[in-house]
Design brief:
It is a single chain. With 281 residues, this protein is an alpha+beta fold. Helix content is 37%, strand content 28%. It has 5 helices and 11 strands; from the N terminus they run H-E-E-H-E-E-E-H-E-E-E-H-H-E-E-E. The strands form 3 sheets. Strands 3, 4, 5, 6, 7 and 8 form a 6-stranded mixed β-sheet that branches. A 3-stranded antiparallel β-sheet has the order 9-10-11. Strand 7 and strand 8 form a beta hairpin. The longest helix has 38 residues. The protein is flat and about 95 Å long. It starts with a helix and ends with a strand.
């Protein structure tokens, strides 16, 4: 009887130890994964690294990227067929300039040209023309209200991928300031357009983890906006149920100076707002 009882207790003890080991293993994996995700939140501003930055800090650091320059090993791609052999892969198609007409407009713009032959890059340059250059021309020719417009760009080469982002700030009369952002991602080795899944695969990033990050950032931004609205401010209302917040539908993104991924929700692309959410991974 004693032996049977001892054996039963031994089995119970072994089972409990196994269950505890499983729990500890799951717990460790969860926090290991959480730590890995959190480690991707560091950003560098100047010579300072900011850990677990706020959305305000991420957006401010993102805006500082727009210096009208290309960064990266451009010399590694000497075999690329260029539109203009005397210029770099990306250059200022319209030099930085200021056009001012009193009480009508004040425009400062640097428009990038992607200097690569091919149908994809041709489409990129046509999109730039339509969104930014045509808007500048329309303001100059037709604007009857005081309009301020500023256009800048940034470009990086990481792992054979060229990322270009153009940002425009527009203030027309009494309308709210509007911020537009357009991005392009192009594989310099294959000559193909780069999709968000290409970046996830290259960096071994899990789709579910990125989806969680996106939804967490946007939900927090929506909550903060509601709090501000309660104080009497106008806000941009995010639709948290929208499928734009699924990583499968991400279209606006770039890789930054250290290869970090910036997923960009610039709501001014469709509305008169400067509001945006930037997910940095």
């Amino acid at each position: 009887m004693v032996n049977k009882t001892a054996t039963k207790l031994l089995y119970i003890l072994i089972t409990a130890i196994c269950i505890a080991a499983i729990i500890v293993g799951v717990y460790a994996q969860f926090f290991k994964k959480k730590k890995e995700e959190d480690s991707n939140l560091n950003i560098i501003v100047g010579n300072t690294t900011i850990s677990n930055p706020t959305q305000v800090e991420i957006k401010e650091a993102f805006k500082l990227l727009f210096t009208n320059e290309l960064f990266g090993p451009e010399s590694d791609f000497t075999n690329i067929e260029k539109l203009d052999e005397n210029k770099g892969i990306v250059y200022s198609g319209i030099d930085k300039y200021t056009i001012t007409k009193e009480d009508r407009y004040d425009i400062v713009a640097t428009i990038p040209m992607i200097n690569i032959k091919g149908s994809i890059t041709e489409k990129y340059n046509e999109t730039t023309q339509t969104i930014f250059v045509d808007k500048i021309n329309d303001i100059i020719q037709n604007s009857q209200i005081n309009t301020i417009m500023d256009v800048k760009y940034t470009a990086y080469i990481n792992d054979d991928i060229l990322s270009v982002a153009i940002m425009a700030s527009i203030k027309e009369g009494n309308s709210a300031q509007r911020v537009l952002i357009q991005t392009y991602n192009y594989n310099l080795k294959t000559g193909r357009e780069v999709r968000i899944y290409d970046i996830l695969k290259n960096r071994q990033l899990e789709e579910d983890a990125i989806n969680r990050r996106i939804k967490s950032v946007v939900k927090k931004a929506a909550e903060d906006a509601q709090n501000i609205q309660g104080a009497g401010y106008d806000i941009y209302t995010r639709n948290l149920e929208s499928n734009i917040y699924d990583v499968a539908n991400v279209a606006n993104f770039i890789q930054g100076p250290n290869g970090e991924l910036y997923i960009i929700y610039a709501y001014g692309n469709q509305a008169f707002t400067s509001e945006m959410d930037i997910i940095q991974v």
